[in-house]
Specification:
215 residues, alpha+beta, Alpha-Beta Plaits, Aminopeptidase, 2 domains, 7 helices, 30% helix, globular, Leu/Phe-tRNA_Trfase_N, transferase, Leu/Phe-tRNA_Trfase, Leucyl/phenylalanyl-tRNA--protein transferase, EC 2.3.2.6
Length: 215
């Protein structure tokens, strides 16, 4: 396993272990995060762990054209059950994602340092948020890194406080990104929920090919 020193470059992603763990340590800085996402690497750890960097193989992605929308979700969208905004309250979204307790997890991987760094990325128009509202209440949302020059969106986390709210926001985002010519949405690792929305696993090499050159 590679232990990064301050400002040390990442090793090749081919050096990951069988779980996709690439390196430990280094610093959570804006330049490192920008480099990481542009090279298929992302941080994922909790407050009890050192900084962990991942690049799994295979990679879970969603091609916008393959988005699956259930009949029940189509009805909610037609009825405009929720209001969806973009980048209206990034901080509220990432803090809500950090607060949500998830099955099988004893803590959050979205540490205060992560919140602050991604907030800085939002100020640079790199980290984007989706807010889902019911009346004036924030009931769902998600955030991620938008590599606009490569037409790739890297989804990070979502939350919901009302049934179907996060899914409603995700579908709305995918439709928006499709209109903007986004080629794929990085979902990082497999979940049954993502598969139900049309996401699939591809090889890391295929995923990285989308990051090699601007669209």
């Amino acid at each position: 396993m590679h232990y990064l020193q301050h400002n040390e470059k990442f090793p090749p992603v081919s050096d990951t272990d069988e779980h996709g763990l690439l390196a430990i340590g280094g610093e959570l800085s804006i330049p490192r995060l920008i480099y990481a996402y542009n090279h298929g690497i992302f941080p994922w750890y909790d407050a009890s762990q050192p900084l962990l960097w991942w690049s799994p193989d295979p990679r879970m992605v969603l091609f916008p054209k393959n988005l699956k929308v259930s009949k029940s979700m189509k009805q909610l969208l037609r009825k405009e059950k929720f209001k969806v905004t973009f980048n209206k309250d990034f901080r509220a979204v990432i803090e809500a994602c950090a607060d949500i307790r998830r099955e099988g997890q004893h803590g959050t991987w979205i540490t205060q340092e992560m919140i602050d760094c991604f907030g800085d990325l939002h100020e640079l128009n790199i980290a984007h948020s989706v807010e889902v509202w019911e009346d004036d209440n924030l009931v769902g949302g998600l955030y991620g890194i938008y590599l606009e020059d490569k037409k790739v969106f890297c989804g990070e986390s979502m939350f919901t406080r009302a049934s179907n709210a996060s899914k409603y926001g995700f579908i709305t985002l995918v439709r928006k990104l499709k209109k903007e010519g986004v080629k794929l949405i990085d979902c990082q690792v497999y979940t049954q929920h993502l598969e139900s929305l049309g996401a699939e696993e591809i090889s890391r090499d295929e995923f990285l090919s989308y990051l090699e050159s601007p669209a």
